[in-house]
Design a protein that fits this description.
The chain is of the alpha/beta class. It has 14 helices and ten strands. It has one domain: NADP-dependent oxidoreductase domain (TIM Barrel, Alpha-Beta Barrel). The model has no long low-confidence stretch (mean pLDDT 93). Bound molecules: NADP nicotinamide-adenine-dinucleotide phosphate (NAP).
């Protein structure tokens, strides 16, 4: 398993971590990942996976980089402290390696939230501060609000079929040394990436590399400087396969063919802004409604 630097912290962590949203695989898939060097696991107070992550980490805490997230409704200073304590309790841990703001909340001043995050670092309850789903402007505001400790990461959607971050956010993070943690790197369903590949370039590259399509898809993300991925696998087989996406690289030519032939999308700034306005409680309803649309239209909307 290759490792990558976490921003300028001097800490290296695995370039493949284990996502746990909608995770119901028990401890075995997580343990299988740890054994293969994917000693980085991502959870959130909203995922309901903190207890199983805690069980999987037990007995090997020193080897595993544990990341969780605080939900936007808990961005008031006292709520941040309470949310962390509740996460630590569910995880059975005394500290987190990375604590991330799950998504921006314009209703609460970022200075208040970041002040609370810095106090948690000072108290030894978290090692590093990160964010998720932040735009360039929101990253700049978050960094300005931090007085003592750096902002080390931004967790955002990135995969072969959705390359929105390449326009502005990825270059900014690379220039500023903010690690990008790519979520939904398999596009939540590998078939969605095949749907964007009318010429069958993905299976062709997979054959040429001797890797599986999923491994190629993950490796494509890792070809970008400063990007790590956190695929979710509910089975030992999926996790093992995903770990095999590290330790090698696509050739420049293979990457270029994927870049050129897959019909990726980039969400516009307007679409991103509209999406960020959907209250998290309504997200499942919106998702169900999108599911009723014809497949071709659905792919454009997601
Ligand atoms: P993903 O990792 O892109 O895709 C997960 C799906 O791919 C699951 O259906 C999984 O099936 C399947 N899969 C896994 N490995 C596979 C393989 N080798 N071959 C074929 N299919 C495979 O999607 P995601 O769960 O949305 O994203 C990953 C993680 O990112 C999440 O778990 C979460 O930790 C994080 N995330 C963060 C945010 C945020 O707002 N910060 C948002 C979304 C996700 P099985 O489940 O059957 O294994």
């Amino acid at each position: 398993m290759n490792t990558q630097p976490l921003a300028a912290t001097g800490v290296n962590f695995p370039e493949i971590g284990l996502g746990t949203w909608d995770y119901h695989g028990g401890i075995e898939p997580l343990r299988a990942g740890f054994e293969l060097g994917a000693t980085f696991v991502d959870t959130a107070e909203s995922y309901e996976s903190e207890p199983v992550v805690g069980q999987a980490v037990r007995g090997m805490r020193e080897r595993v980089f544990v990341a969780s997230k605080v939900s936007p409704e808990h961005f008031r200073a006292a709520d941040v402290r309470r949310a962390l304590d509740a996460s630590l309790l569910r995880l059975g841990l005394d500290h987190l390696d990375l604590y991330q703001l799950h998504q921006p909340n314009p209703a609460i001043p970022i200075a208040e939230t970041m002040g609370a995050m810095e106090a948690l670092v000072d108290a030894g309850k978290i090692r590093f501060i990160g964010v998720s789903n932040f735009s360039v402007a929101q990253l700049q505001a978050a960094r300005q609000a931090l007085r003592k400790h750096p902002l080390v990461s931004n967790q955002v959607r990135y995969n072969l079929a959705d390359r929105t971050i390449e326009a502005e956010l990825l270059p900014f993070c690379q220039a500023q040394g903010i690690t990008v943690i790519a979520y939904s790197p398999l596009s939540r369903e590998l078939q969605r990436i095949h749907d964007c590949d009318p010429e069958g370039v993905l299976p062709e590259v997979a054959r040429a590399t001797g890797k599986t399509p999923a491994q190629v898809v993950l490796n494509w993300c890792l070809c970008q400087d400063g990007v790590v991925v956190i695929p979710k696998g509910n089975s030992v087989a999926h996790v093992r396969e995903n770990c095999g996406a590290s330790g090698w690289r696509l050739t420049p030519d293979q990457k270029r063919r994927l870049d050129e032939k897959l019909q990726f999308r980039r969400r516009s700034a307007t679409e991103m802004a509209l999406r960020s306005m959907v209250p998290s409680g309504l997200a499942p309803l919106v998702k169900r409604s999108l599911g009723l649309l014809p497949r071709s239209l659905r792919r454009r909307m997601r």
